[in-house]
Amino acid sequence: MKPTLRILHLEDDPNDAALIQSALETGDITCAITCVETRDEFVAALERGGIDLILSDYSLPAFDGLSALKIAHADQPDLPFIFVSGTLGEELAIDSLKNGATDYVLKQRLTRLASAVRRAMQEVEARAERERLQAQFIEAQKMDVIGQLAGGVAHDFNNIVAVIMGYSDLVASELESDSPLREHIEEIRHASERAAGLTRQLLVFSRKQTVQPVVLDLNGVVKDLDKMLRRLIGENIEMTVVPGKETGYLKADCGYLGQVLMNLVVNARDAMPNAGKLTIATNTVILDEKHANAHPGVIPGEYVMFSVTDTGAGMTDEVKTHLFEAFFTTKTLGKGTGLGLATCQIIVQQSGGHIVVESEVGKGTTFKVYFPRVQKPLDFAAKPDRTGPVPRGTETLLIVEDEPSVRHLARGILEAQGYTVLSASNGQDALHVTRDHKGPPICLVFTDVIMPLMNGKVMAESLKTAHPKLKTLFTSGYTDDTIVQHGVLEPGIAFLPKPYTPATLGHKVREMLDASPNGSGQ
Description:
Layout: E1 5-10, H1 14-26, E2 31-36, H2 39-48, E3 53-56, H3 65-75, E4 81-85, H4 90-98, E5 103-106, H5 113-174, H6 181-205, E6 213-217, H7 218-233, E7 237-242, E8 249-253, H8 254-270, E9 276-287, H9 289-294, E10 301-310, H10 317-321, H11 340-350, E11 354-359, E12 365-372, E13 396-400, H12 404-416, E14 420-424, H13 427-436, E15 442-448, H14 456-466, E16 471-476, H15 480-485, E17 494-497, H16 502-514
Parallel strand pairs: 1-2, 1-3, 3-4, 4-5, 7-9, 13-14, 13-15, 15-16, 16-17
Antiparallel strand pairs: 6-8, 9-10, 10-12, 11-12
Helix pairs in contact: 2-3, 5-6, 5-12, 6-11, 7-8, 8-11, 13-14
């Protein structure tokens, strides 16, 4: 069905108006015409809006077409304006085009009117497309600048956050459960988590994040985050989790999947400032051709889905159209960056999934997040086995890190777990330390990737030549494109992104030491 063209027609002769309408209909133009004769009627019609095109006679008893053209273009410069007149000579026609008219048609040659209207509307569409592409280009440039900025500060910022998080955890582990200082330490820890989360959002949005996809159990991920999510929403919101039976597995980065869920829960909380109900549900669904056609890029098939539903204020259609745009937010100043949902969409799309939003003003909102279901065994790294005390060990380890505060932190964490720890400030220093070491063999090297004099990858390859059984765990606060240039994010390479916690480091080291020689690829 063709869209109806809304036309404002400035014409004082009813017979001419009827002929013009007939010419449009004969030319297969579906239109709704509003006829006016005077200046006041013309201005009032413009103010009401909803006009796609203006047709105008050149001379009228109490008004004229050129004046109407100036009024129209002062209000809506891009609105097409076509003169349809019987008195328009060549000089006046040229003058009208110079003043901004789109075209002119003589009343004696109305057979040309339909094609003139079609051409005018095609120019409108072409101009809108150019503006859309220009906006996309500007947005891409803006994101590139953000990406460069985020990538430039990520390394130093992640080192700082790693130290704050690490020492907060170490201090908390030494405090009694009823210590008045515990609350202060937890606030410091939460602030550092927010700082790390903001960095991740910037990196994700600029597509410069380090992604480590593994096979995950969706119900397990939701269960692991349950307590944290309940802390986020507060006591005035009733949260219910409805896990599906045999939901199945998906492949995604566990940390970033958790970030998507937390972002959606925080948005739901903010939509219910006084009180409300929040429901998180998981399920396995079959998406058919109809769903795929309604969501470009979606392939029909079996998907793992989780939904976040709130009983908040809901959203208008206008808000929903801008929902995933960068920096768009309905929150008050200081309450949101406008990156949350845009980040969620990018994370989900990178895992082959998509997000669907259902919302109505006064009836709440539901976000449904779909991931392709995978028929693969659960990855060891994805299993929820990181609770309880950090495993200990007695092996000899080497830490290579150019940032002194991070190096001292990592050394202290691992020494507290019983390991003998050597340290070096760069790759060349590490080769000297290894060569001069006379004690038990070094079992694992924990090294930064980007360092002065010699980077971690080159150093690891040199050590591997002399010590074939030596395992290597890489770490970095740089973005993935920088790390890829150094050949680290290849299959089988063990990598721990910064900032890491003492528990995460302790578990990862123990996991690698206990793995078979071929299990880690190192």
